[in-house]
Amino acid sequence: MSLYLTRRIAKLPRRILAETAVELKLLSEKWKLLLAGLIFQYIHGLAARGVHYLHRPGPVLHDLGFLLLPELGKERGYVSEILFASIFVSFALWTFSPFIFKNKKFYTVLIWRRVLAFLVMSQSLRIITFYSTQLPGPNYHCREGSPLARLPPPDNALEVLLINFPRGTLFGCGDLIFSSHMIFTLVFVLTYQKYGSKNFIKVLGWVAAVIQSLLIIASRKHYSVDVVVAWYTVNLVVFFIDKKLSEMPDRSIKTSTLPVTAPKDGKTKEENLKLINGNSHDGLDLRPRTQVNGKNMENGNDDESGKDSNTP
């Protein structure tokens, strides 16, 4: 057993270097889309910061989830954050598993391109929603009497652009419908549901998503409607965006090192070789021909052609 582990560890640096070369090749082709997705994460944070200036604290709205779930309290609000951090880190580590494990099913660059597409569309809908109507925040720092419930007008644009990270994201108010934590959680769970290989982890992911939903409500960080809307919105977004995106190649099927990109002119490699060699016609007749009276004649018709030429 120790010899087996030693051999695997010895091969690990070479495997990491080989996978890095493959992923860098893909990154050189897809970096624009990935960069756009990362920039939008900042735009989403900026929008959440901006709506905090519009937030007006008020009485906590009547909520069925608040009636059914016991309140965790301000001092135990970290419980939901620990679970969310565990889901986030676990998913991120899994997406980089091709660098470590021999059996590979996906490319890290391509799967994050897909994840960012899901996140950007879901977050765009979220921004439109929470700017349409600002509800009084149920979180403790967003209630009446809290100094963090309302933000004074900014002194300059830089104060808004810096979004006071990470404090501004942890103590924001007004960005309620729908839950950003549930967007990330559901996108991660749905992605692993499709591209993951362990059924136990798939089931565990859905259980974690349900527990995360309950903890968010019990922590009074969101109303129940914020969580419910996230569940059906994110699932619909992933369903429709996934249909529009081209399917990722399955690396468990040994074909080529990189996914094949179709030529711009629509011609395959074999067709281009035919054009180069002068054989562009599919049904080209390669039978030998001879010349009779300056005309090309097929060998099978030589005798008949000769007879015809001597006939008056």
TrEMBL record:
Domain Sphingomyelin synthase-like: 172-240
Membrane topology: Multi-pass membrane protein
GO molecular function, one term: inositol phosphoceramide synthase activity
Keywords noted in UniProt: Lipid metabolism, Membrane, Sphingolipid metabolism, Transferase, Transmembrane, Transmembrane helix
Domain of life: Eukaryota
Pfam families in the cross-refs: PAP2_C (PF14360)
GO CC terms of this entry: endoplasmic reticulum membrane; Golgi membrane; plasma membrane; trans-Golgi network
One GO BP annotation of this record: ceramide biosynthetic process
Subcellular location: Membrane
Residue intervals passing through the bilayer: 78-99, 169-192, 199-217, 223-241
Residue segments, region Disordered: 277-312
Polar residues: bias regions: 290-299
Family the UniProt entry places it in: Belongs to the sphingomyelin synthase family.
Descriptive protein name: Sphingomyelin synthase-like domain-containing protein
